[in-house]
Design goal:
Blueprint: E1 10-19, E2 22-32, E3 37-41, H1 48-55, E4 63-68, E5 71-72, E6 84-87, H2 99-109, H3 114-127, H4 143-155, E7 161-165, H5 173-188, E8 192-196, H6 200-206, E9 209-214, E10 217-222, H7 224-230, H8 236-243, H9 249-260
Parallel strand pairs: 3-8, 3-9, 6-7, 7-8
Antiparallel strand pairs: 1-2, 1-4, 4-5, 9-10
Helix pairs in contact: 2-3
Bound molecules: adenosine-5'-triphosphate (ATP).
Pfam families: ABC_tran (PF00005)
Domain ABC transporter: 10-240
Organism: Paenibacillus rhizosphaerae
Length: 265
């Protein structure tokens, strides 16, 4: 069905946000449809996390309209959150809990019955090669293992929308392949995925649509092929640097090295 005939699963209209007098979102408009993998990219401070946190209901005080599953999220109903999974870039993970305790706790928060959460979590841990640490404390896990636990926690309740912030952070090459394949399968089944990352090669490959944010504005929106046609034949990295005006990376690197070398003798 063409998108114009479908209801967007997420609809953002005229979204603005100020922090202490500084406007960080300047009127974002975005309709997202079921089954899309949105590569949500932009320079540091562009407003990606702020937009995602508004959609998750974690930040109030914005202006504009945000509708998810057809309902305005400012209405105060929180049911929609049970159909959303979230992997933040930096997560508070209750280090003193074991992976089992953490995952069953999160599963229950999302409305799963404890035994089902436990059973699902254990089987997902096995698939990620973590069966031996299921009963270990999170504080004893490696960075990549913690990231896998976080990914599992976002998936346990079979959400319809997934917000992922650098989800491959710390994962080894084999696990990266599993997660990429898994995301493609989930999208093919109709799940919607918001994928924020600074690793342009991955975003280029996995996204069905790329939304580039710069200084609180959407400055590009389309499939990688459309962006190439409209803007620049080349890699996503090249499109990114062209649109965000960051061409001086060599000069900047040289200046940094020169400052680093300044030491008193
Ligand atoms: N709690 C806050 N208080 C004040 N300013 C904030 C706060 N959170 C974010 N900002 C500001 O809002 C702007 C957008 O930040 P945001 O975290 O959304 O950027 P981002 O695109 O996710 O960046 P990154 O790629 O570095 O994660 C930045 O200028 C940031 O300093």
């Amino acid at each position: 069905m063409p998108e114009s005939n479908r209801e967007p699963i997420i609809s953002i209209q005229g979204l603005e946000m100020n922090y202490g007098g500084k406007q960080v979102l300047k009127g974002i408009n975005l309709d997202v449809y079921e089954g899309q993998i949105i590569g949500y990219i932009g320079p540091n401070g562009a407003g990606k996390s702020t937009t995602v946190k508004i959609m998750l209901g974690l930040i109030k005080g914005y202006s504009g309209r945000v509708r998810i599953f057809g309902k305005d999220i400012s209405d105060g109903e929180v049911e929609y959150k049970a159909k959303i999974g979230y992997v933040p870039e930096i997560a508070e993970m209750y280090d003193s809990l074991t992976a089992q305790e953490y995952l069953t706790f999160v599963g229950e928060l999302y409305g799963l019955e404890r035994r089902l959460a436990d059973h699902k979590a254990q089987r997902l841990m096995e698939q990620f090669g973590l069966e031996e640490v299921y009963f270990n404390r999170i504080s004893s896990l490696s960075k990549g293992m913690r990231q896998k636990v976080l990914l599992i926690s976002s998936l346990l309740h079979n959400p319809d929308i997934l917000f992922l912030d650098e989800p491959l952070s710390g994962l080894d090459a084999n696990s990266v392949m599993v997660v990429k394949e898994m995301l493609a399968s989930l999208a093919a089944e109709g799940k919607t995925i918001f994928y924020s990352s600074h690793i342009m090669e991955v975003v280029e490959k996995i996204s069905s649509r790329i939304v580039l944010l710069n200084e609180g504005n959407v400055v590009a929106d389309g499939s990688f092929e459309q962006l190439q046609e409209q803007l620049h034949e080349g890699t996503l990295e090249e499109i990114f640097t062209e649109l965000t005006g960051y061409h001086e990376h060599k000069d900047t690197a040289a200046r940094i090295v020169s400052i680093v070398k300044e030491v008193q003798r």
